[in-house]
Amino acid sequence: MKKVLACALAAALLSGALPFTGTDALAQAPQGGLQPIDGIAAVVDEDVVLKSELDRAVANILNQYAGRENQLPPRDVLERQVLERLILVKLQVARAQGTGVRVGDQEVDQAIAAIAAQNRIGLDQLRQQLAREGTAFSDFRNSIRDELLIQRLRQRFAQSRVVVSEAEVDAAMAAQANSGTQYHLAHILVALPEGATPEQIATAQKKIEGIKGLIDRGEMDFAAAAVRYSDSPNALEGGDLGWRSQDEIPTAFASLMRTMQPGQVTAPIRGPSGFQLVKLVETRDASQAGPSLVTQYQARHILIRVDGDTTDAEAKAKAETLRARLAGGADFVQLAKENSEDLSSRDRGGDIGWFARDDFGPDFGNVVAALQPNQISQPFRTQAGWHVVQLVGTREADVGEQNRRAQVRETIGRRKLEDEWNRFLREMRGEAYVDVRVGAGAQQDAPQQAPAASGG
């Protein structure tokens, strides 16, 4: 859940829902009784991005870069970059809802409570802070709900599109045995559309070469160039890709990283998304792996599914009734055999054996980890439906080779998911009807492009 909440917080900041410290002039509620008429920044299929949404998001970026405004692109370019992010959020939320992904009010409440806790404030203080910055709490809730929907959509996408073979795991583990180095990377992307024409390729190549020239001549540092020119979704973070192990780096870059020194930048590289520059920020030795001891949990559960025959409210009510019977002394094993809709565990009285915290997803794992042995949870919601869980016991297990293989499998899966997900977003953006109504670049059905490198 921590990773989900971190993303939720970032999305809230971008949308203007959770304010940065300082005065957000553009996001302030108007003084006096008059309310301005909101405008439309972009039409996105059946939805819209309001001008006020764009203004709040841009203002938050400006506040974040206070004192470092020279690292930002010109105002019109910044607006286009931020608007493109907001457009992608609208498209992902619509796709999630269209494919049946749902997020309940209880899950939103839990996410908001966790965000408040991470910021070391109470819920009342969070409401007050939002009110001071002119942000309605309902808008904040909606932004968190949207981010949770996007996370669920991404999880479904990973389950359906990302496959990691045993041979890939074997090869990655062999490579790790020879090198424990991890790489902190950043990149700049000049994107190309699917089926790019020779003219588009030549223009993109000229632009990436121009950006490389600015960096090599010391006219602009890499992070500032990424903010100003990169087409990547992480452009406003200076193109930072974080720490990657060798098996998390695309093959086209992995061999280059081993020959580079921290601070160096590659020559332009053509990849499936377009032309890229990659900077090696720093390296570290990760060969000394931590202990392979992990906490495992043994639990039993009762699952009530939400489907075409059972609404969310009906499933929740049934789970609450079963929880009340358990509180009255009913036997968990017997109730699970009679009522659970998890066919794999029902005949065992709901017993799901020993598992690591996140084996069944963060929502399930966080609830189980908070229980004491023999304690029974309150009903809670996951993608599978409504659960009631009893923790049987815990243990520290040395999973050894199994755990290392699982970690390697996860890192390979993340790398594949990143590639596939970015391709999916480009396809979704290209297929969408988008009518941009602000700025000199207002247009229909075309992604916004960053300025040419020579434009300063």
Automatic annotation (TrEMBL):
Enzyme Commission designation: 5.2.1.8
KW Phosphoprotein (keyword) present: no
Example of a GO MF term: peptide binding
Catalytic activity from the UniProt record: [protein]-peptidylproline (omega=180) = [protein]-peptidylproline (omega=0)
UniProt protein name: Chaperone SurA
Annotated compartments: Periplasm
Gene name in the database record: surA
Gene Ontology CC terms, in alphabetical order: outer membrane-bounded periplasmic space
Keyword Repeat: yes
Organism in which the protein naturally occurs: Vulcaniibacterium tengchongense
